[in-house]
Design brief:
Chain lengths: 477, 331
């Protein structure tokens, strides 16, 4: 165990944790903005109540996304100083743009939204949540651009004098095909998560509708259930289409990732999509791997990767030989079992989540509600499935890049901070893990508490015969 | 001025914006138990005074650090890896503090709120002290060899000069926060905030004077002497103005004190960004650390477009919430 291993664990743990909150922030900001828009246009108090209810849940989640994001920006410099020095000229530019163009927008306008309910004209107040939602989605673009550059570096050169990369074409970086495709994939997956969040909360409240504090409440959740299902189904279609495009880009730019995710050892034409494989590959003994067991659907992989059922897909052993010739001796294979299973779990859990959305839409057509209680439980279970699919997607993306931080240019082993000791990284890893664990418990408890309290808690229902109150109270701390 | 120098100034401006803005909300956080003693309503008045703006203020840090990454990668990398434990401490404090603001009022239970109050106070005091410690060490220099790897350990960083620097920012931010609360609240909290400002002013004045004199004696130039004098003068002016109940002007004065202190530190640092204690020849300078002109040019365009816009909407947000926060607002 050395500082490199711990720094990698720290990056993995903090990034995965951060990414539990990010997709909800990206998607839910738009959902809340849409609910408030519905209230603005119709004037119906149930939309306002739904806005405030999901708004509160959104804010509980948002806080965690913001604070864990700080760690992300700092740890490049703390643990990966050689990486930061090498790539800063290129990688730093989208990061600086993210701060200047997205984070300021998001955080300033979220403050205006939280506290501005009774200070701003309604139309202006509505604009503040949209500005915050645009900020969230814009920040996703910039950070995914930076990430895509590591996987498919473009628009740069390496200075022979300093050994550092420098930017030559910002436009190439911002329109990197990997960036655009990843953006579509990640953001639509975020909308699946947010849609299923709304579905899960609504399903939970409908499951216990006999406990509703007011006769109007089930009607509210019937609407939000539908809205969540529609969001999930539409976003699910975009996830699938962009995922297909991602596979083709992977075949082109990151063939080793694709081969590992599919456990294809030798280059094949008319390759099948593997359903279950057990491989034989000793770490260190490179270039001699094979599968002991492999169950395949014929032609599907070639079709997914190249668009033709007869297309050629490169194998791990061949790629290893090619990379060893190109970059010198070394192991250029990522962790194959992790990639193989992440890929399957991402697709399987993601499809399951989207499937719940589509089936749910069918079951709730013409305003009907499913009669069977287990259907609500399935709808609730779809949320963790979708979150897990997001996580496995990132594991595939980041582990698939190994052993490189910048594919073809900088190895992960050469990226760490030389002046940082094992003890320092171990200490920070321990601190973050403990802190994040404690915060996870707090966050989960708060979310459950507010879901249980329901919309009547953020905006009390009027007594029978009384009109809805006209004044909209702000969310103060 | 060449582009790297322009960007050194831009980074200094971003850090100045950060310290001026988050400086007062650190002060507010530290003053929470003092100004809100005995009454949860008053504690809520204190917190809600910065409620709409603290998150936006913190983005100045994110932007300052992000801009360092883009414009001076070697500076960013050396600073964050070289000051590993202090930076870790700041990050953990900012996490605890951010979550605390958001979660404190979400459960109606005194024990729950008391725990988050601890997080707010510690989460404000730790960065307020640690940033001073880090910047003092930055001016003083670090163990930087010809390989450009910072090898200072925690014991090196806890030198007397840096500790005075930490105390100076800590007390300065307490004063800045007290003046802000005197300006932004009304009723008992405003009353106590004025008293707190009066009590904090001598401590802030003395430590800031000591810190800037020490900086001046070891590393100063005539130009930094003028800026440092401005800082101390503005601080004294702020203390007098708040005593005379001119809170708006007093806040402007303490803001100038924070800005001038930051400016003095950056001016002392220049042209190095990471000075070496071992040999001035090993100093990492603006020129060594800078990105290429192409990147700096793009950053200039984006900064030139975005920063005025940010200033515009952040000012608007302060304008929207310009009214004093009182007990009536939070109950």
């Amino acid at each position: 165990m050395d500082a490199l291993d711990l720094a990698r664990w720290q990056f993995g743990i903090t990034t995965i944790y951060h990414f539990l909150f990010v997709p909800l922030t990206i998607g839910l900001s738009v959902v809340v903005a849409a609910l408030q828009t519905a209230w603005h246009r119709t004037g119906r108090p149930e939309y306002l109540r739904a806005t405030k209810f999901f708004g509160k849940l959104f804010l509980i989640n948002f806080a965690m996304g913001v604070v864990t994001g700080i760690v992300q920006e700092f740890q490049f410099g703390m643990n990966w100083s050689t990486y930061s020095t090498f790539v800063g000229d290129v990688f730093g530019a989208p990061l600086a743009m993210e701060a200047l163009l997205a984070f300021f927008l998001e955080s300033t306008f979220i403050g205006l939204w939280i506290f501005g309910w009774d200070r701003l004209p309604r139309r202006v107040h509505l604009a503040t949540i949209w500005a915050a939602a645009i900020g969230s989605n814009l920040s996703a673009f910039f950070i995914l651009t930076a990430n895509a550059w590591m996987r498919h570096p473009v628009g740069f050169a390496v200075d022979p004098a300093t050994g550092r990369a420098y930017l030559t074409d910002i436009w190439a970086v911002l329109t990197n095909p990997q960036a655009l495709s990843t953006y579509l994939h990640v953001v639509s997956a975020s909308f699946v998560v947010a849609g299923l969040f709304v579905v899960a909360v609504s399903a939970y409240k409908l499951l216990h509708r006999d406990r509703a504090p007011h006769p109007d409440e089930p009607g509210l959740f019937r609407r939000t259930l539908r809205a969540g299902l529609v969001t999930t189904a539409i976003a699910g279609a975009v996830v699938a289409l962009s995922g297909d495009h991602q596979a083709k880009l992977m075949a082109e730019y990151e063939p080793m990732k694709l081969a590992s995710a599919e456990a294809i050892w030798e280059t094949e034409s008319a390759a099948g999509f593997s359903l279950f494989a057990i491989g034989d590959h000793e770490i260190g003994e490179v270039g001699v791997g094979r599968n002991v067991v492999d169950l395949e659907v014929p032609y599907v992989l070639s079709f997914l990767a190249t668009g033709s059922p007869a297309g050629e897909v490169e194998g791990i052993n061949d790629l290893q030989r090619r990379f060893a010739e190109q970059f010198g001796p070394g192991d250029y294979t990522p962790n194959i079992p992790v990639l193989y299973w992440s890929f399957r779990l991402m697709i399987g859990l993601g499809l399951a989540g989207v499937g719940v959305g589509v089936i749910g839409l069918w079951l709730t057509r013409r305003g009907a509600l499913p009669r069977h209680r287990w259907m609500y439980r399935v709808a609730i279970a779809a949320l963790p499935a979708a979150l897990a699919a997001n996580i496995f997607g990132w594991v595939l993306t980041e582990m698939g890049r190994q052993p490189w931080t910048v594919v073809g240019h900088l190895l992960t082993a050469a990226s760490v901070s030389p002046g940082v000791s094992l003890g320092e990284v171990a200490f920070s890893l321990t601190v973050f893990t403990a802190l994040y664990g404690a915060l996870a418990v707090v966050e989960a408890r708060l979310l459950l508490r507010y879901v249980a309290a329901g919309p009547g808690h953020v905006m009390p229902y009027p007594r029978a015969g009384e009109p809805e109150p006209d004044r909209v109270p702000a969310f103060v701390y | 001025m060449d582009l790297p120098t322009v960007w050194f100034v831009a980074i200094a401006v971003l850090w100045t914006g950060y310290f001026v803005l988050e400086g007062f909300d650190f002060g507010v956080g530290m003053l929470l138990p003092v100004l809100g003693r005995g009454s949860d309503t008053d504690r809520r008045v204190v917190i809600n005074a910065i409620g709409p703006v603290w998150d936006g203020n913190e983005v100045w840090l994110i932007t300052a650090v992000g801009a360092m990454f883009a414009a001076f990668p070697a500076w960013y990398a050396g600073l964050l890896s070289g000051f590993y434990l202090p930076v870790l401490l700041v990050v953990v404090a900012l996490i605890a503090r951010g979550v605390a603001f958001e979660y404190r009022g979400k459960v109606d239970d005194p024990r729950w709120r008391a725990r988050w109050d601890v997080a707010i106070v510690a989460g404000s005091a730790v960065p307020a002290f640690t940033w001073g410690l880090v910047f003092a060490n930055l001016v003083r220099g670090v163990e930087l060899g010809p390989d450009r790897v910072v090898r200072s350990d925690l014991v090196d960083l806890l030198n007397p000069y840096a500790l005075v620097g930490g105390l100076a920012t800590l007390t300065l931010f307490v004063l800045h926060g007290a003046v802000f609360l005197a300006l932004k609240t009304d009723g008992p909290v405003r009353h106590r905030a004025r008293a707190a400002a009066r009590a904090a002013a001598p401590a802030a004045g003395a430590t800031l004077f000591a810190f800037l004199m020490w900086t001046q004696a070891d590393h100063g130039s005539p130009a930094t002497a003028v800026v440092a004098a401005c800082a101390v003068g503005a601080l004294l002016g702020g203390a007098l103005l708040v005593a005379r109940r001119r809170e708006g002007w007093a806040f402007l004065a303490t803001a100038i004190a924070v800005a001038a202190t930051t400016a003095a530190l950056f001016a002392t640092l220049f042209p190095a960004v990471l000075p070496s204690l071992l040999d001035p020849a090993f100093d990492l300078t603006v020129a060594d650390a800078a990105s290429k002109p192409y990147t700096l040019g793009i950053l200039s365009w984006i900064g030139g477009f975005a920063l005025p816009l940010v200033l515009l909407y952040q000012s608007w947000s302060y304008w929207v919430f310009r009214r004093r926060v009182t007990r009536a607002h939070v109950s």
